[in-house]
Amino acid sequence: MGFFGCDYLETEGGIFTEYRCKYSRQSLDTRTVQDICMTNRHMDCADYQNASRCFITTAVCLSLGKPDNCEELSVMRSFRDDWLRNQPDGESLVADYYSTAPGIVKQIDQEADRKNIYKTIYEDYILPCINHAKAKDYAESKTIYISMVNSLKERYS
User: Fold this and answer.
1) Is this prediction's pTM over 0.70?
2) What is the pLDDT of residues 35-62, one digit of tens each?
3) C-alpha–C-alpha distance, residues 140 and 22, integer Å
4) How far is it, in rounded angstroms, from Cα 106 to Cα 156?
């Protein structure tokens, strides 16, 4: 899509291209796509702003084309709500994440190579965290989770 443009723009079709917002799943008309989605004005779009407020795992999964109900998000949400919050330091870890993650995602979304950044986060942190959570090795998932948040805070805050 060039140097400017929305990562959530999805195209379909052959001769007649159909445009869709990958985040909102809404059909888009050609004028909107040309005037907003394919320009640096995409950051003014309400759907883009909502997607940009997503937290790290959601932003990673969206960048990989995964839906909001994908296995990765389900496992991470369950890990957070069913195990991490019940740990002595769990609520403070979650509160810290909620206060810093939106800013981290906003910074990453401004990077030219954001798709590669999200792919690296997925491979280095999200996937190992999920695999340990699925194996019920929650302590290791927590260690990876903390490492991810601290590393990203250091780089993007």
Assistant:
1) no
2) 888 887 877 787 776 664 458 998 899 8
3) 33
4) 9
